[in-house]
Amino acid sequence: MEPVRVGSIGLGRWGDTLAEKGRSAGLELVSCYSPSDRKLAFAQKHGCRPAETLDALLADPEIEAVLVATPHSTHADIAEQAAAAGKHLFIDKPFTLTVADARRAIAAAEKTGVVLQVGHNRRRQPATRQIKQLVDRGDLGVVHHVEANLSYPKGLNPRTGWRGDPAESPAGGMTGLGVHMVDNLIYIVGRPARVAAFSKQVIAVGTLDDVTTVNLEFEDGPLGFIGTSMVIPDVAMTAAFGTEGAAWNETDGARFYRQAVGEPERHEEPVDTLDTVRDELVEFAECVRTGAAPEVGGPEGLEVVAVLQAIVESAATRRVVELDEVRAG
């Protein structure tokens, strides 16, 4: 398959990661843009040419698609501009910060027929796939509860730049971390119906909330819990609990555990691992070439955004938020 020629927009740590992974995933980086001088070093490192402006990059006829890793609030505007220029879109999570912006981006992509993919990669971990298969086959019985936590201690060193701005990272770690777990649980048991959340600073380091907890009720019946903190040791866990058994993805996909009813404790089972970022970029290249729909496109990204928006609202108002009300907004 001929490599897809891409431009990178947003050249921080994650933009760098996407460029590195894309090289072996069927993408050829030809240009990059950032409003700062960072584009010069980025272009030299990755062997591409820097664009003087975003408009210049989007007008480049050699570029077929763009990788977007910019501040979250800019995603919808960039999506509209890129789609109007006929460029396919890979947008880092969260897709947007509001349902209204997500709908704008989706409408722009649909109008011009470009591929729109959102970077929710953790559902691709074989351990998460295995939990999904167990649930779908009924091997866990009736699923009553799902749970996830993605946390790290990096918040002990206050973040600078836009990632440390509460307007770009509402509900603390939910925006950069917890949305992955929202996507995992939706992938496993379907759409949530209601959300109740708490988010606060406990040790008051920096400007962001350092711990957020979320209770969810899913449309198909189960209840769920998501936790995220930026000041505790690394945690990366997704689990499902049913009337016949339970299953865990732990250590960010490196370990998989099961426990059947009647067993006194869980046991570890072998599980494959996968470079999930590279894997989603391989899919993006294939979708651009074939016209297929990506696993996580605009509608799937919007569902996560709706939950994030509901979390922010619930934490601020101290009430349960109905997801249908948010989706309709």
Description of the structure:
This protein is of the alpha/beta class and 329 residues long. The chain folds into two domains: 4-120 and 277-295, NAD(P)-binding Rossmann-like Domain (Rossmann fold, 3-Layer(aba) Sandwich), CATH 3.40.50; 122-273 and 306-327, 2-Layer Sandwich (Dihydrodipicolinate Reductase, domain 2), CATH 3.30.360. It contains ten helices and 15 strands. The strands form two sheets. It has a nine-stranded mixed β-sheet. A six-stranded parallel β-sheet has the order 3-2-1-4-5-6, with helices on both faces. Strand 11 (235-242) and strand 12 form a beta hairpin. The chain is globular.
Give the overall form: globular
Return the CATH class of the largest domain.
Alpha Beta
Instruction: Give the DSSP E fraction (strand runs of 2 or more residues).
Output: 25-35%
Radius of gyration: 20 Å
Task: Please count the helical segments.
Answer: 10
What is the CATH superfamily of the largest domain? Answer: Dihydrodipicolinate Reductase, domain 2
What is the CATH topology classification name of the largest domain? Answer: Dihydrodipicolinate Reductase, domain 2
Q: What ranges have pLDDT less than 50 throughout 5 or more consecutive residues?
A: none
Instruction: Indicate the CATH architecture of the largest domain.
Output: 2-Layer Sandwich
Tally of domains:
2
How many beta-strand segments?
Answer: 15
Helical residues, percent = 25-40%
Cα separation of the termini: 41 Å
Largest sheet: 9 strands, mixed
Structural class: alpha/beta
Order of helices and strands: EHEHEHEHEHEHEHEEEEEEEHHEH
Q: What strand order characterises the main sheet? A: 14-13-12-11-7-10-9-8-15
Mean pLDDT over the residues: 96
